[in-house]
Specification:
Strand content: 5-15%
Shape: elongated
Helix content: 55-70%
Number of helices: 15
Order of helices and strands: HHHHHHHHEEHHHHEEEEHEEHEEH
Structural class: alpha+beta
Length: 460
């Protein structure tokens, strides 16, 4: 039993042995026929694992997993996980048979590294918003990590780490090296990535619930993200031996920056929480800010996105909603009052015309029935009588032009049926007589302009 335990311990150490596994061992293996057979068998084993992982039945089984993040990760790591298990079993069998192997060990190490790389890429895809982590960035990061694998296997990483440890500097009473700083940044990135993944998962849960107000959901989401970002730094720095008192130096510099150049950014950040907490601005509200009218599409940490009916988008700083007057046309209700002006002739039956205007507006599905549309006489113009029909629109976010066109078309059809005419421009012309009672002849207006004279001088 002890012999098997020692054998398993030696096998486990070989899986993690990178520095002793160098290129000369691979070159030595290729000098013998057994080494080539071992290489071909290892390639066949990797291809078999790939065939099993990509089999339609296996793919469908993974796609049927209920939890989406686990399904996304499973699709990425199933092949390297299967390859690692197969290579490890082959290596263990060779160890029991006392037959030294090289290529299965390399395959197990590469599969192990591939699992780590694909886990990192999968978590980044889940942690970052859609479209932020593109395929190009994925290829770059994957290539960088595979380069680190080559350095680790060949043992060159030991030379690089020793050189980075020799470069040291002092911050306050703490002595730091380049290696410590880089490993600290690496751990911060890893912990921050995990925290962002967890924060996004919580954010999706918050946004999907209907029991909380939308503004409260956004506030809680921003608070969770901010807390997780701070926690990621506080957790990662002690892992590499960096004292948290080092942050006091950067905290002082940050305070000076906030006092001068960053005060607007800090003000916008705080204002974002204020407008969300007091619910003065909500997603979907129709706002008028400095003459620009649009609907709130997104509330970020720094600005609010307003989208107009014609597709234009304005980025309004959060501070504007706290320090300036903002017209919120849907603060207490979404419906908006709109009106259309119509002119009819002086011989029109006005009560009937007003009734037609009211009926034309009420016939539209987008017009509110309570309160109902109303028509009014607004004045007597030069050419006809001015009428106006007013109504409440239930869904102003869908625009007004189409609704106005439908109402005016209905009015035009009903007026034609009822014999109500739209007036044409009218002018009253009076012919004046002179003292003798005669009408003076109307003479054409002569052009008073004379053509300009051009003098041409001939040179002798």
């Amino acid at each position: 039993m002890n012999d098997f335990s020692d054998l398993f311990n030696d096998f486990s150490q070989e899986l993690a042995a990178g520095h002793g596994f160098t290129a000369p061992m691979l070159a030595q293996s290729l000098k013998t026929p057994a080494g080539w057979v071992e290489l071909l068998l290892t390639i066949a084993l990797a291809w078999l694992c790939f065939y099993i992982a990509e089999h339609p039945a296996v793919r469908r089984s993974i796609e049927n997993w209920r939890w989406r993040p686990l399904r996304h990760i499973g699709q990425r790591i199933f092949w390297p996980l299967l390859m690692f298990a197969a290579a490890s079993l082959a290596q263990l069998a060779a160890k029991i048979a006392a037959y030294p192997v090289v290529w299965p060990q390399l395959l197990a190490m590469a599969a192990n590294w591939m699992i780590g790389i694909r886990l990192v890429l999968a978590i980044l895809h889940l942690a970052l918003p859609q479209g932020r982590f593109t395929a190009q960035w994925e290829r770059r990061l994957s290539g960088l990590l595979w380069g680190c694998f080559v350095l680790w296997v060949s043992g060159i990483d030991k030379i690089i780490t020793d050189w980075m440890k020799s470069l040291s500097f002092t911050i306050g009473s703490n002595k730091l090296s380049l290696y410590t700083v880089l490993t600290g940044l690496l751990w911060v990135c890893i912990v921050m990535m995990l925290m962002m993944w967890l924060a996004r998962w919580i954010d999706e849960r918050l946004m999907s619930t209907q029991r909380l107000d939308m503004n409260l959901r956004i506030v809680l989401s921003k608070v969770v993200k901010s807390l997780f970002m701070v926690l990621s730094v506080l957790i990662a720095l002690p892992l590499v031996g960096i004292d948290l008192t080092v942050l006091s130096v950067f905290g002082g510099a940050l305070g000076v920056g906030l006092g001068f150049g960053l005060q607007k950014i800090a003000s916008n950040y705080v204002s974002g929480f204020i407008i969300l907490a007091d619910r003065s601005v909500r997603p979907g509200d129709r706002l008028n800010v400095n003459g620009f009218t649009g609907y709130v599409g997104k509330i970020t940490s720094r600005f609010v996105v307003l989208r107009s009916a014609d597709g234009q988008e304005a980025l309004i700083p959060n501070e504007t909603f706290v320090t300036s007057t903002v017209i919120n046309e849907s603060y207490t209700g979404k419906a908006l009052w709109q009106s259309l002006d119509v002119q009819v002739g002086y011989n029109t039956d006005l009560p009937r015309a007003l009734a037609i205007l009211t009926e034309a507006a009420a016939a539209q599905k987008r017009v509110s029935a309570n309160p109902a549309p109303n028509a009014f006489l607004t004045g007597f113009g030069d050419n006809g009588i001015d009428l106006r029909v007013g109504f409440w629109v239930n869904d102003p976010e869908n625009g007004f032009l189409g609704l106005f066109s439908d109402i005016l078309m209905t009015i035009w059809q009903r007026f034609n049926e009822e014999g109500i005419e739209f007036p044409y421009p009218q002018r009253e012309v009076r012919i004046l007589q002179d003292d003798n009672g005669e009408t003076p002849a109307v003479l054409p207006v002569e052009d008073k302009e004379k053509p300009s004279e051009t003098t041409v001088s001939e040179s002798k």
